[in-house]
Each structure stands twice: as C-alpha cells, then as structure tokens.
Amino acid sequence: MSVTLFHHPFSRAATTIWMLEEVGIDYDMRFVDLMKGEHKTPELLALNPMGKLPILTDGEQVVTEGAAIGLYLADKYASGRLAPALDDPARGTYLRWSLFAPSVIEPGASAHGAGWDFKPQQAGWGSYEVMLDTMESAITGRDYILGETFSMADVIFGGTVRFMLRFDMIESRPAFVTYSQRLSDRPAAKKAAAINEAAMREHGIDPS
C-alpha cells in the first residue's frame, strides 16, 4: 500500500482515520505504542521531529499535522468532492475554517482551560467568548461549513468541535451539539470510530 498512517487511537490520528474513510482510499495502519515511547524512536523522529502523531506517508511523501493531512488527502484524492477546486469561490471559506481549528480553537480552548493570563488582543486566538461566537457563526443556518455540501473542512473543524464537546472543553451550545451529531452520523465517521475501538481492543487499551 502506498498510504500508511502511524496511529494510536488516543491521538489526533484517530481523526485521520475518519479523513481516510471519507476520502475512500486504501491505506495501511501502523500502531505506535505511546506508552512505550515509540513516537520518540529515531525512526519516527526522522519522519516528524516533533515526535507526535499523526504521521502519514504517501510513497515518499511525509505529511504531519492533522489539518495539513486532511487538506492534502482531499486535494490529492477527492478534489471537487471533499475539496473545492482551486478556482471555486468556496475554496476560501473551506481553507478559512479548516485552519481556524488548529490555529484558534485548540490554543483558545487550552488557554481557557488552563486559566492562562494573557491579553486577548495580543493572542492569535483572542478571547474565549469571541472564539465560541465565531465558531458558531461558521455553522449557524447551514448543515456544513460550505452550506449543504460536506467537505474535508467539516472533518477538520467538526472533528475539533466533536473532541472539545466530548471533553467539556467548550460550551455545549445547541449549534455545536447538532452539528457534531450530524457529523457522527456519517458512515465514514462511524467506520472510523469502529476502527479506533478495534485498535483499543487489539492492543489492550482501556478507553476509560
């Protein structure tokens, strides 16, 4: 197989499974035992010096960072279906919210949860309330980021929303809950959940 995902079900690689299932290509999974420190071995550090998952290889190509992997897969294997074409006006909205997830939601929620002391106007993620309001504006009055059309932006942005709701890292606003459930009902999301659960069983990982 050309595409290999270095995976652990308790890492961001769990969402990468959903990405791959939405794209619909064959891929291989390679389990990385985080408890044994396998993500810090020379082999893995050669692929990602950060020593973090997910890591995706596609032939000789190495892609890390969840959002980058999603955008890469959609452009290469599902252009026009999960990724708007380069000249499609929807492309800007697609990229905007895809990158909003790792650059604003993740640090903003972490800062709020840890009680960091900072000036919102000096932080790229701004204030927690403004962040939540902005997130809500992306999905209010529409089924998906691009309206009625599902895209990889929903896996990236929506996957972050689902994760944050699960661990009470953001408010359970009705718009977030409804959107999250809509995404969870997708066949690819259900299959990804089953694959991650199977990996837990195979490797004796306690989900609690």
Q: Give me the CATH fold name of the largest domain.
A: Glutathione S-transferase Yfyf (Class Pi), Chain A, domain 2
How many domains in all?
2
Helices, by number, come to 8
The largest beta-sheet arranges its strands as 2-1-3-4
Q: Main sheet?
A: 4 strands, mixed
Mean pLDDT: 96
The portion of residues assigned to helices is 40-55%
| Rg | 17 Å
CATH class of the largest domain: Mainly Alpha
Residue fraction in strands: 5-15%
Strand-pairing-aware structural class = alpha+beta
DSSP, total strands: 4
Shape: globular
Order of helices and strands: EHEHEEHHHHHH
Under the CATH scheme, the architecture of the largest domain is: Up-down Bundle
End-to-end distance? 33 Å
Low-confidence stretches: none
Offer a quick outline of the entry:
With 208 residues, the chain is an alpha+beta fold. The protein has helices at 13-23, 42-47, 66-77, 90-114, 128-139, 152-166, 174-184, 187-202, and strands spanning 3-7, 28-31, 55-58, 61-64.
